[in-house]
Amino acid sequence: MTTSPFGSAALLELVHDLIPSGSRVRSEDEGLRAAVEALGQTWHTTEDAADVVLLLDGSLAGAGVHASGMVDRAARQCRPGGLIVAAAPSAVYLRLTGRGQDATPALSADDLDHLLRERGVEVELLAGPGAAAHVGGRPYAGRADLALDRSAGLRDAGPVVLAVGRTPPSETDRSRVFYTSIATKIVSASTMCLDDAGRLLIVFDSFKGCWTLPGGLVDRAESPQDAAVRETLEEGGVPVEPGDLLGVFAHDHPDRINLIYGVTPTEAVPSPEPLHTHEIAEARWAPVAEALQLLAPYMARKVRRCLDDPGSTAVL
Question: Torsion over CA of 210, 213, 217 and 223, rounded to 10 degrees?
């Protein structure tokens, strides 16, 4: 691990307190044998399960699409409830310092955490060794304090990211940890509601300070269609029935999906009034051309997309 002042043996020593004495330790890196035995552990070479598997030589970062398979193999080589100790050059550190131009294979702390958890390995330690010392004006080498280096803001601030994970004691545990690794997206549903005159229902969001479509977050155990109907009534005061999905829009910051449905009023509401006045200051019908002028630009782009290419998907 040439990008770090902490070599594989030094990283192992940093976490030796987490490894019970006499543990059977497996590693593909034969050069770690002396370090393992010096710490009171047993170098494990037989086919039966080890207590600890080490992935400290940086090969995990260089494995690319095969990295998940490496973690899976390590988990199978380890007894249930055993430990996997893994490390990789820090992708964030390399970018920040401009040292990533040599294409050194690297991972972020989130990458390493995800690689372990998606195979059911519970991550007990995730840290950037030496990062706290460096932030305090001292050199990285020999200054690791994992109690501080594991802080959320420091995990990517050192040259290397280090993780200790526990293999699942049971299939139930494996599934539980796996599901924590799945990406979650915020889902919201909005509506394009047209009255008999072809006017679009728009609402003024007092928090955002702009005109927008009725809509909001999909609640737990609620379908997006049901959320669209509910939000149209709450924000626009118009009861509706759902129609076609007109657009799917992906956003970053935060990572979210916005679904826009066409809906039809189930009764005439000549003068719509919001029910949730703490969120929405005003609701009104507007001719589509006028609505496109009033709506916030990002929402106007969505409406145009829904009108021009209904049912399409876009990243905004």
Answer: 180
Residue whose pair of structure tokens reads 């494990």 in the numeric block: 44
Distance CA 200, CA 291 (A): 7
Task: For residue 32, give the 3-state DSSP assignment.
Answer: helix
Domain boundaries, the chain: 8-181, 186-315
The token pair that represents 178 in the structure block: 């796996």
- Taking the C-alpha atoms of residue 249 and residue 262, their distance in angstroms, rounded to an integer, is 15
- Look at residues 56, 161, 59 and name the one whose alpha carbon lies nearest to residue 105: 59
186-315 in CATH: which number? 3.90.79.10
Question: If we measure between CA atoms, which residue out of 86, 112, 111, 97 comes closest to residue 158?
Answer: 97
Look at residue 185 in the predicted model and tell me its pLDDT. 87
In CATH terms, the superfamily for domain 8-181 is Vaccinia Virus protein VP39 (3.40.50.150)
| 8-181 and 186-315: identical CATH topology | no
Say if residues 265 and 239 touch (Cβ distance below 8 Å): yes
Is the pLDDT at 43 greater than 50, yes or no? yes
Look at residue 5 in the predicted model and tell me its pLDDT.
66
Please tell me the predicted confidence (pLDDT) of residue 260: 98
- Please give the model's pTM, rounded to 2 decimal places: 0.72
